[in-house]
């Protein structure tokens, strides 16, 4: 098994005796886009500051890129925290050349990162002429200079319009494949990160209450086909013979468990063929958000 790119074990952090993190465990697999979710004030930014070595945990262990965070070479991690300060009177290339000289990188690095964020053509334009989405892409380009193996982003789509959000999402999504960069991205919106993440961790009450790959989550989600019929018992017998699993709710309604959407015509045809009157069929697949909320309640 690969070493997690971020591994937090039992981390705690209090501010003026007020506990914010109360035994936080996080395991971020390599080459993942890990969405770190939590409501406002749950401690996402605090965690991110600890991952970047800007804040020390009171107790517990924090490993980033296989090393204790205190020993980490910070140049191996790219980050956007808070609103990035972009100098409006500079062109994008001039702006990136500041980071290039600080990090002592080759000139070609500017062209590489501009290409990655699709800003090659706008490279010689002043930042003051950029849209908010372009500015955020430029901030991403800056964070990607030096080809970091890990990118840590604190709410990178905050304040962007839907198109800007989509641009950033598409960019982030392709980073593991394109440049072997893992991404740890905080957000308070599950439906927003669902479109780009491969893994999700949910922070609540100072702990991670759920951590899962999205693939696993999707497999766990149970869809149902609710049928209103003349006799649920008869319908259940007919469907059992046809290989469907059902749960009877009332004498006149039952749920078919985990049907795929394409099976609905077959289910209804089976019933009609055997003389079971069907009044209504309603297909339901929970959203990821509903699944997480219910898993959370069960785990609580
Ligand atoms: N330097 C600090 N001093 C005192 N309290 C702090 C400090 N930094 C954060 N806190 C408190 O810790 C809690 C968590 O804050 P944090 O900014 O980490 O949450 P968050 O999940 O990032 O919230 P948001 O989504 O609103 O940014 C809040 O109650 C905040 O007031």
TrEMBL record:
Question: Any transmembrane segments, and where?
Answer: none
Which parts form a coiled-coil structure per UniProt?
none
Q: Name one Pfam family in it.
A: ABC_tran
The text of the family note is: Belongs to the ABC transporter superfamily.
* SMART domains noted in UniProt: AAA (SM00382)
Q: Which domain of life is it from?
A: Bacteria
Keyword Oxidoreductase on this protein? no
State the name under which the record lists this protein.
ATP-binding cassette domain-containing protein
Q: Which GO terms describe its molecular function?
A: ATP binding; ATP hydrolysis activity
Does the record bear Ribosomal protein in its keywords? Answer: no
Identify the keywords attached in UniProt to this record, alphabetized. Answer: ATP-binding, Nucleotide-binding, Transport
For this protein, the record's InterPro entries field holds: AAA+_ATPase, ABC_transporter-like_ATP-bd, ABC_transporter-like_CS, P-loop_NTPase
Domain ABC transporter: where? Answer: 6-230
């Amino acid at each position: 098994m690969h070493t997690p790119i971020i591994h937090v074990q039992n981390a705690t952090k209090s501010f003026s005796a007020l506990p914010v993190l109360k035994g936080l465990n996080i395991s971020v697999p390599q080459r993942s886009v890990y969405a770190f979710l939590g409501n406002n004030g749950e401690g996402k930014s605090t965690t991110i500051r600890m991952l970047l070595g800007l804040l020390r945990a009171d107790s517990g262990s924090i490993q980033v890129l296989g090393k204790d965070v205190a020993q980490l070479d910070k140049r191996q991690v790219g980050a956007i925290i808070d609103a990035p300060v972009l100098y409006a009177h500079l062109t994008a290339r001039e702006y990136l050349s500041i980071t290039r000289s600080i990090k002592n990188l080759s000139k070609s690095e500017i062209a590489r990162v501009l290409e990655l964020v699709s800003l090659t053509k706008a490279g010689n334009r002043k930042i003051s002429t950029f849209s908010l989405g372009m500015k955020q892409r430029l901030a991403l380009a800056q964070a990607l200079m030096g080809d970091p193996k890990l990118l840590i982003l604190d709410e990178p789509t905050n304040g962007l319009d839907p198109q800007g959000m989509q641009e950033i999402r598409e960019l982030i999504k392709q980073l593991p494949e394109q440049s072997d960069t893992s991404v740890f991205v905080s957000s308070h919106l599950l439906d927003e990160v669902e479109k780009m993440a491969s893994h999700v961790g949910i922070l609540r009450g100072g702990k991670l209450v759920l951590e899962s790959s999205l693939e696993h989550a999707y497999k766990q989600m149970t869809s149902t086909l609710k049928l209103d019929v003349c006799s649920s018992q008869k319908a259940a017998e007919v469907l059992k013979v046809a290989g469907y699993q059902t749960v009877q709710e009332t004498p006149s309604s039952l749920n078919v468990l985990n049907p795929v959407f394409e099976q609905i015509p077959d289910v209804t045809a089976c019933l009609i063929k055997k003389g079971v009157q069907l009044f209504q069929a309603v297909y339901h697949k929970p959203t990821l958000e509903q699944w997480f909320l219910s898993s959370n309640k069960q785990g609580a």
